[in-house]
Amino acid sequence: MRRIPLAAPTTPLAAVLVALLLTGSGPAPRSAPPTSPAPTGARAGNPPLATAALDRLLADPRLAGAAVSALVTDAATGEVRYQHSPDALLLPASTLKTVTAAAALDLLGPDHRFSTTVLATGPRTGAALAGDLVLRGGGDPSLLPADLETLAGQVAATGIREVSGSVLADASRYDDVPLGAGWAWDDQGAYYSPEISALTLTTDGDDDVGSVRLTLTPAEAPGHPATVRLTPAEAPVRISGRVDTGAPGGELTAEADRHPGGNEIVLSGSLPTDAGPTEEWVAVADPAQLTATVFAAALARHGVTVRGGVRQGQAPTGAAVLATHDSEPLTALLPPFLKLSNNGIAEHLVKEIGRVRSGSGSWAAGLDRLREFERRAGLAVTTARQVDGSGLSRQDLMTTQGLVSLLQFARSQPWFTAWYDALPVAGDPRRMVGGTLSNRLRDTAAQGRVHAKTGSMTGVEALAGYLDQADGHPLAFAVLFNNFTGQSPRSALDAFVVQLAGGTPARQAAPSTLEPNALEPNTPERPRGGHDWEATCTATQAC
């Protein structure tokens, strides 16, 4: 599953925004649904919001027949500045990640770390271990092959050179349910829908848990197969099919997919000769087996021979700890989680909350603790339903009132700064600052003044976060669009935010696009997208 590379804007928003914000011209909009009267008692010196203009934006023809909810409050006082069906239960998509991140900071603590350990199960005689080496997963969603290499070096440093038993993959910290409720069966090979395991591996700093990376390089001449490099090279997968090399300037159609029920990765499509290397990320079946296999290869490189291969099981009581790797603290995991909308991190946090707070590393236990947090945070002002941590499931339901209640609650918490800084920043081209908002709201009044979490699925557009008004006073807002068909109404959502920011026509000539919201490349060889590239979302992907 390829992440979409940075694309040049193809549909300027200037005309769209000006028309929507100022005239409401274009196709005749449907009648605006009733909204509450404009609230009174606004702060002195702060003019009321242009509610009529906001109403027109929510009456965009693309939203005809759709479900729409919006709520805007003064973030400092909670005063309602604008509302439209704030109690409607709608799919939140990845705006739900704001709830999961806040709960994790509250229930686990900003300094929480995930520990991966290596243990020995039998007695030693000199350099020989008569037993197993256990690789025990601690739920780390950021574990890299380099970390396994370090652990292998630590084992070798103890003097062990031969193991009569196996490398035992211990994923018992979490339960054995790999996929969330309502996740699509045909997305199992997609990097954004990984199997969740307490022992898992990522290939890079984006923390795409349980996935491998394929680098495809076109041949020098058309008609020949592209070369394939697998990372990590020892991954227990089988690659079939091929990617052909096409003529220069041709369409890039290369794909890699894994069908359910095994670890066969099927290649198809073509790469133009002038395309350069492209990369595909594929989620694997059984991440614990993947991780232990890569660890066994690292042991061999450090001179440790394991006679019994790799198998799975749980470390016995009394096994001796040989080596430990601790992740960075939770606060350091928040940027890839929220800015890149990483689904795997979300689900690890839910299961970790269950394990730490209830002794059970399951979705059920973790979500029970999340619901308690939500009640304490004031999110339970209306009925809601949360079945995962990422918003990937179409069984999740949330209200804009609940999301805004969280935004207001978070401002008073000691972890607020870390949480706020991890939200995407509108129009900032730096990948780990702008995140999924890097290519949105540029050159508008909202640029740099909006910290908000995006959300997108087929038929869903959402945004929830903070907007600093011109005088620096913050608004808290959430907007959910559900059940639309046809062209995406994202430009209407962005125009809504620009209107909140007090934008003028001159500042609305944004180079934003309705095309994929990919981010700047990490390197010339690796066009990077991430997880919230809304136009790439399938019918069930939450971004």
From TrEMBL:
Pfam families: Peptidase_S13
Highest taxon above the source species: Bacteria
Keywords: Carboxypeptidase, Hydrolase, Protease, Signal
Principal EC category: hydrolase
Gene3D superfamilies: D-Ala-D-Ala carboxypeptidase C, peptidase S13, DD-peptidase/beta-lactamase superfamily
Signal recorded as keyword: yes
Claim: Coiled coil is one of the keywords in the record: no
Region (Disordered): 27-47, 240-262, 506-533
GO MF annotations, alphabetized: serine-type D-Ala-D-Ala carboxypeptidase activity
Membership in a protein family: Belongs to the peptidase S13 family.
Name of the protein in its database record: D-alanyl-D-alanine carboxypeptidase/D-alanyl-D-alanine-endopeptidase (Penicillin-binding protein 4)
Gene source species: Kitasatospora kifunensis
